[in-house]
């Protein structure tokens, strides 16, 4: 049974900062946001977690393997190197959405995202190493079947992008409502989903839902592990099996 | 009348590279993609252009002000510092979608995105400085009215994200089909749209379309300029007027 | 008694890479080198180690607290994100110079720095967590007394730089020969030295040696710890005592 | 005749910032310094200039080709993305040292490096495009003959570093006093020197001075150009001739 540890990272008072004293150059905001995300990806990823850029001022991470001290260090390091600070909420749950809801509530209780007095909150609990198992995290890695042949080499780059976005928007809604899962577009034609215990039938349902809804054909590899990296790399290998064998769904366990 | 110069940047043979010889750590791919985007944002942004991360392996930029030599230098610098290379297609058009279509075609004609022999193509034409005007670029900057109060401080972070994504997906389809415009989510609750000559009625139509379609309330500031930065900073200031005055649409000209 | 774990990181075949097929833009090489160093600094620093840029293609780190698996992960992550790869040698010794010599020999035995077949070697042994103590690392943090008043606000920036460099060159030679220590310039007017067990008399000797040799006045704070960070932060606090009290030497134990 | 445009970049109030409210983690300071330098290297380098890390809180650049507006943009972009700000002084001179002295004085007159009220000064004059020539900049690129064979593959990495440092310290003093030139270690075994009009005899004198002083054998390639990049890439090619032909000095004109 999954036991997902989810961390919400929220930049403190970011909206006001971007327009004070004047609106800042957009290219600089994009650079700041992307590099902050890249740094969090290295920190969390080097401890076998995954973080998703989400809205950039709010990032969602699967942090099984990171302790409270790790979270404090990440927060301190960002505060030393960026013109902004971040607040962190960590929680675990029977489903990823449950954990994420609790993590969000921890930060909301500390103060508004635009409360200029709320700075560098760190709330929540991490899973003791002794209580971790190889089934704590389930990751599903979806991609669009032959995106290059069907879209990238055929349509203009924005129309290709629209197709991928529509596929993602459909999958994200379905996985959240039907399966309490968190789905994130990660570039190219790839979507990574953080799931509770799902089986082949439920992945099949998801694929056909998206095909019916927006006419985008997906395939999926899924994996389990002690950490997001362990589950995710198993999912990537399973997806390679889909590509090699022409199957729509492959489970790495 | 607008004369948008659009550049499509596409990483060469990226899909195969990410899984050769084995699938690579996801956190490292995210770091690479984000930092590549950040570098392109600095290079293009420092010449008053805008670039949008789009799908990360394919990025769309508004490059009025960048010459062909600038494009060649960007390509060379990336080749010197990353384990991947990029191909670039540049075109101008009566509408942003038209320019982007032509830019895409230039790269597609040079070879598939997964053609291992296609490396560092540079095709297309830039606008002569002598032919540039203060109306070449029109940028519209949309955001969700009181996103912090309505969503961020109220819902869990993923449900807030779903609302923002649905609003974006609806706006992006509408602006592309009805107005040959390119819309990009840029973080937080912000969407930047690259437009041809649109007027207040057309922005009003867009806002009410999204409200009817997915029940997300947007406001918008628009600006014009010689470059994306010039148009975009005018749009940001116009959006500040919306926030200050409680209006839904403000034009910076 | 100190037990310093030292890692030598050496970029594989870097010299030839920088000029193949043609010499590469210097600004790009500088960017690559600095960002690679910054990434290693984050990775090592987040595990409470210190890494010094040294010659950029060869970096020396104090890695008490990093396991062999940590070293392998660092190497893999760099290989995923840079156009170069690195080899690593790790050793421990009764003195920092002894450990660094052994670490160097491990890499030299694997192959030349310009051997195009030597890639991503990882050799050596790390200290078991069970055998670590709070006296494993001794760090001394030197700076120039009132560098701002004496030099920065008075001389041209290059003449100030020459003074700092001469001070550093003198200290580095003395500390290596007299005390088997490794001294590194870390920016501003600061030099961080990795030492074996030294006492106040030996630090006094070092300060007066440099004053006699090149007429540069130094002060120093020293600290001990389980890791470079622990020893180093104690040294920084001791140096603050020098600044507050006007003393030349302060020991943090 | 050379006409070097030199810019001094100085971080505002950096010393105090690094210890307020408490001393900050050294690894984070190193990361910040290196990434700031890398960004300046990209900005300046993309306009065909060169910047040298120097002391990191003070960086020296050759900025022929950068206008005052370029300097203002660099300053603004840094202010948007870092927790520190920078002051800039620009000057030109008959020799590099003269230009650097004037650039330093401009900043010193604006206020102390640790004056908490001095922020983002921008002083000085750049060369009009109309007045630039192909002889404005002279760059000499020195390296140690067969450093890999003599040092890197033979000595421990710190003793190799000491040899390179001693060679650099000797060359830097000589070039500054005898030839009003600015010499910078750029990694590996390479030193780049910004010179006025020097001829073969003067380079020969420099090489033999260093050999006599510290027993380090150098070779050098020199180049001229409109910009640091143009002169520098010619110098790199000349240095390749030294390597290919076994000569000690090659001039690219």
TrEMBL record, chains A, B, C, D:
Keywords: GTP-binding, Hydrolase, Nucleotide-binding. The keyword GTP-binding applies. Its EC number is 3.5.4.29. It is an enzyme of class 3 (hydrolase). It catalyses: GTP + 3 H2O = 2-amino-5-formylamino-6-(5-phospho-D-ribosylamino)pyrimidin-4(3H)-one + 2 phosphate + 2 H(+). Belongs to the archaeal-type GTP cyclohydrolase family. PANTHER family: GTP CYCLOHYDROLASE III. Catalyzes the formation of 2-amino-5-formylamino-6-ribofuranosylamino-4(3H)-pyrimidinone ribonucleotide monophosphate and inorganic phosphate from GTP. Also has an independent pyrophosphate phosphohydrolase activity. This is GTP cyclohydrolase III. The lineage of its organism: Archaea, Methanobacteriati, Methanobacteriota, Stenosarchaea group, Halobacteria.
């Amino acid at each position: 049974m999954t036991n997902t540890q989810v961390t919400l990272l929220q930049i403190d008072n970011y909206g006001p900062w971007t327009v004070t004293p004047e609106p800042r150059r957009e290219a600089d905001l994009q650079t700041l946001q992307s590099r902050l995300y890249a740094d969090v990806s290295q920190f969390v990823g080097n401890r076998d977690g995954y973080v998703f850029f989400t809205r950039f001022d709010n990032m969602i991470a699967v942090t099984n393997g990171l302790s409270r001290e790790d979270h404090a260090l990440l927060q301190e390091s960002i505060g030393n190197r960026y013109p902004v600070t971040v607040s962190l909420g960590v929680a675990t749950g029977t489903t990823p959405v449950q954990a994420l809801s609790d993590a969000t509530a921890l930060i909301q209780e500390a103060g508004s995202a635009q409360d200029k007095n709320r700075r560098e909150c760190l709330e929540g609990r991490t899973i003791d190493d002794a209580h971790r198992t190889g089934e704590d995290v389930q990751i599903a890695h979806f991609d669009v079947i032959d995106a290059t042949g069907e879209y990238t080499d055929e349509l203009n780059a924005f129309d290709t992008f629209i197709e991928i976005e529509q596929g993602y928007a459909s999958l994200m809604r379905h996985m959240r409502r039907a399966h309490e899962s968190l789905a994130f577009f990660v570039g190219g034609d790839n979507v990574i989903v953080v799931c509770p215990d799902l089986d082949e039938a439920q992945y099949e349902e998801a694929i056909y839902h998206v095909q019916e809804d927006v006419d985008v054909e997906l395939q999926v590899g899924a994996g389990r592990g002690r950490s997001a990296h362990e589950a995710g790399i198993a999912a990537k290998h399973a997806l390679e099996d889909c590509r090699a064998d022409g199957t729509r769904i492959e489970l790495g366990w």
